[in-house]
Amino acid sequence: MSRSFTYQALVLKTHNSGESNRDAWFLTAEEGLIRATVFGGPKSKLRAHVSPFNRGTLWIYHDPIRDSRKVSDFDVASWRPGLRELYERTMAADAMADTILASHGGGGNWEEALSLADSGLNALESADEALCVRVFIHFLWNWANILGLRPEMDRCGSCGETSASTAGPDGLLWYDQHEGNFLCSSCTEGGGLNGLLPLNPGGRRWLAAVGDLDPAQLGRYSLDAVSLGQVRAVLTAIMAGILGKYLNTWHW
Ligand SMILES: [Zn+2]
Questions:
Q1: Cβ-based neighbours of 69, under 8 Å, separated by 6 or more
Q2: 168 C-alpha vs ligand 1 centroid, how far in Å?
Q3: Above 70 in pLDDT, residue 170?
Q4: Interior/surface letters 124-146, b for 16+ CB within 10 angstroms, e for the rest
Q5: CA dist 83 → 34, 54, 125, 131, 251 (Å)
Q6: Distance CA 80, CA 122 (A)
């Protein structure tokens, strides 16, 4: 018995398989990550529709005997042509897709995961180079939250002091890559211990301000170059700690 299913889906990645077929990975609101085969040569309409970052309604035919899935149709609602118009937009979109794939689609909060990926990609569509980086690190921060593994920033992970009683809400924090948490300055001997990444007040305020923001609003929250570099280093370290590795696509 074969069965047909319908999904709200985002194409994350495609890969040629065989002479004229293509494997595609989707993030769906209903079942998280799905891999399916697109049949048809380079001129097939379906193949053109199933391209990275397109979003729409997906019809899948599942053969339970072989446990194989085939794309029977994909009705694209959002093409996002802007993503291909600027190198940094494509790089940031690839980095987001890779992160989603490496973390198995968001661990159960699929509807929320799809919504976060969608809003990030929409924001990238018109972003300039600098904004692309901010959209990406904002995505990492919120993706860690979806996975339930965003480290607490308001309390030292070692002594438990709230930031207000140590260096104040604007104080310097350190991200401890071994323990996966934030530490106050007194618990790190002023940052002298190994495996620490600094997060300065500018970066810290930015993360607190943009936490639950729609990425479309990120253009209004600028970040100086030093703070941006620190936030990016800390956020990729947080995600690397979660995934157990750094992804090559995070650096461009
Ligand atoms: Zn402390």
A1: 34, 35, 36, 37, 60, 61, 62, 63
A2: 12
A3: no
A4: bbebeeebbbbbbbbbbbbbbeb
A5: 23, 10, 5, 13, 17
A6: 7
Å from CA of 158 to ligand 1 middle: 5
Confidence of residue 119 (pLDDT cuts 50, 70, 90): very high
Cα pseudo-dihedral 171, 174, 175, 181, rounded to 10 = -70
What is the mean predicted confidence (pLDDT) over 32-42?
Answer: 91
For ligand 1, the distance from its centroid to the CA atom of residue 144, given in whole angstroms, is 22
Which pLDDT band holds residue 164 (cuts at 50, 70, 90)? low
Distance 114 CA to ligand 1 centre (A): 36
pLDDT, tens only, 221-234: 999 999 999 999 99
- Give which of 57, 58, 69, 234 is closest to 137, Cα–Cα: 234
Give the separation between CA 68 and CA 56, rounded to whole angstroms.
21
In this structure, are residues 187 and 159 in contact, taking their beta carbons and an 8 Å threshold?
A: yes
Return the closest-CA partner of residue 97 out of 138, 139, 67, 130.
Answer: 139
Share of the chain above pLDDT 70, in %: 96
CA of 155 to the centre of ligand 1 (A): 8
